[in-house]
Amino acid sequence: MEQQMKMFQEDRNLPFSVYIAQDEKFSWHCHKHMELDYCSEGHCTIKVNGESYDCQPGDFVIIHTMEDHTLIRNSDCKLLGVQMDLSVLDTAFSPFYESQYLVPFIRGSGKYQRRIRVPKGSLLESILSEILVEYQKKQPGYEMYIKGDILRLFSCLVRTKVIEIGERNVNFQDLERIKPVIDYMEQHIETELSVAAAAKIACMSYYHFCRLFKKVIGKTFVEYQNFIRIRRAEKLLITTDRTITNIAFETGFGSVAYFNRVFKKETGQAPANYRKKMRI
After folding, report:
1. Model confidence pLDDT, tens digit, residues 128-164
2. Which among 182, 219, 184, 193 is positioned nearest to 94, based on CA atoms?
3. Would I find Cell inner membrane among this entry's keywords (predicted)?
4. Which of 43, 79, 58 is nearest to 122 (CA)?
5. Which end of the chain, N or C, is more open, meaning fewer C-beta atoms within 10 Å of its C-beta?
6. What is the pLDDT of residues 56-75, one digit of tens each?
7. Fold of 2-159
């Protein structure tokens, strides 16, 4: 375990680490980082939350945050590991796209396969190899390259249904009609915006706006408004020392009690517990 943790701390300013496991056995442990393990040669056993996975070349295992796990590695085993802070999955895209693909998985509420077989010569194998090479060479810009590769990796997992997402066909003409509202909400997250005011921004009637918004986004206006506010609050809880009261008002909630209630509904835990868990 010491070898593994040293590898993660090698670049303290980076939200990820890449390594080849050296120790034959790691003691049971957990951490706030998500871990992706890929067996490229030999055999090993990975145990997660009491479940045992005997891995051979081509096996890829996903270990979510704070899951108890251990590794028993045969001498012939070559295991590529990627540990990453969940901030790596933050994208430059609108929270609309995050809500479809990443957030359910990040929060642990989405369905996914623990272990998959990576076909030889597949795109997924190529991405894993690129991550290792970039991390070892550390050429200028390698940090951005690896983040891009990690996002590509998760795109592959979504496309191959390793990570399940809800099926919803979006009409992009409809999306363009409500895009001014989405942009306004994301740029003025601390500002109160009623459904009626949002309908005016979209130049629609109240009824038609509510109906179209739910059809396109998959959430009601209020549900999506709370979603983007809680996403911002999650980041502030992890990256700042601001009080929960300040974060509640900074993200547009009228009271701390309402913020706490919505936060727990969205994430399954209270803000204080979330901050404590993610800062371990």
Report:
1. 999 989 988 999 999 899 989 998 998 888 888 887 7
2. 182
3. no
4. 58
5. C
6. 999 999 998 888 899 998 88
7. Jelly Rolls (2.60.120)
